[in-house]
Design a protein that fits this description.
Length: about 300
């Protein structure tokens, strides 16, 4: 059956620590609490899409360990199709160490583990799943060659969230229909200083993706959509942020869900902004990801 959204990407065990402030290099800071939770940009995006009601599949790789088994069960219980999630017999499941400060800023170090062994041939094993999907959504926590393979197989809308920030081969960028970077990811891709205003964001986006759509997420400053012939700005919703982890993933997933159901880019960005605003109000990458009913109720406030 053709799925609405297929996500290709990472799955990590997240270890999160709350801290009054982020430590400086060489410094130890006493935290105020910690918790373990499911994460990984790919798995987060798959869960967010499924919660919003899209039929969703996930292409990825876990280790042969309890973290991998538990998170596979977790995806399955969220109704994500895990038939393309394979097990690496040697490398452990990916791990992310996250620090969240009192202002709800975070830092993340992700160690890929099994995510690093997702190969083009493993992706090709699921060619029909990818080819038939209305939207394919990828990030940069798995090898670029695997993403390129998925992009080549995709016949629907191919969305790339270039996170964490890294250079992308031209051949991959040429296949991207919708690019969803944040400010620093866009700057790196454009080879420019961090963009400050909408004019700079627009110039950078057009330099990176002249013919596609770039949706630049600006956190509390909202989002800017840069298309070949127009630029549109969207304000962020004001909420009490507790943990930003997974908010960007929720945004990308909601955008993909909107596009899969035929929304205009403006409608999809409105959905994505609301879903991401809700996501930051709970602790953990996936805990705050909303259902479509919750998003609709939020927009009607
Ligand atoms: O985007 C948030 C995610 O980044 C976390 O869940 C962590 O696993 C890292 O991949």
């Amino acid at each position: 059956m053709a799925l609405d959204v297929v996500v290709i990407g990472s799955i990590n065990q997240d270890v999160s620590v709350m801290s009054p402030r982020l430590p400086r290099p060489g410094e130890t800071v006493l935290g105020t609490g910690h918790f373990l939770g499911p994460g990984g940009k790919g798995a987060n995006q798959a869960v967010a899409a499924a919660r919003l009601g899209a039929s969703t599949g996930f292409v990825g790789r876990v280790g042969d360990d309890d973290w991998g088994r538990n998170m596979t069960e977790g995806l399955d219980s969220e109704s994500v199709d895990v038939s393309a999630l394979s097990t690496d017999p040697e490398r452990p499941t990916g791990l992310a160490v996250i620090t969240i400060d009192a202002q709800a800023e975070n830092t993340i170090v992700a160690s890929p583990g099994a995510n690093g062994s997702l190969t083009p041939s493993l992706v090709r094993e699921h060619a029909s799943l990818i080819a038939e999907a209305k939207v394919v959504l990828a990030q940069l926590e798995v090898p670029t060659e695997a993403i390129l393979e998925a992009a080549s197989l995709s016949s629907g809308v191919f969305c790339l969230n270039p996170a964490p920030a890294a250079a992308i081969p031209k051949v991959l960028l040429e296949r991207v229909d919708v690019l969803i970077p944040n400010r620093s990811e866009l700057s790196l891709l454009a080879g420019r200083e961090e963009t400050v205003d909408t004019t700079e964001v627009t110039e950078a986006a057009r330099a990176v993706l002249p013919d596609g759509v770039t949706v630049v997420t600006l956190g509390g400053d909202g989002a800017v959509v840069v298309e070949a012939d127009r630029v549109s700005e969207y304000e962020a919703h004001e909420v009490e942020a507790i943990d930003p982890t997974g908010a960007g993933d929720t945004f990308c997933a909601a955008l993909a869900v909107g596009l899969s159901r035929g929304d205009t880019i403006a409608e999809a960005v409105s959905l994505a902004s609301a879903a991401a605003a809700i996501a930051v109000t709970a602790q953990g990458a996936q805990a705050g990801m909303p259902s479509m009913d919750e998003v609709e109720a939020f927009l009607e406030r």
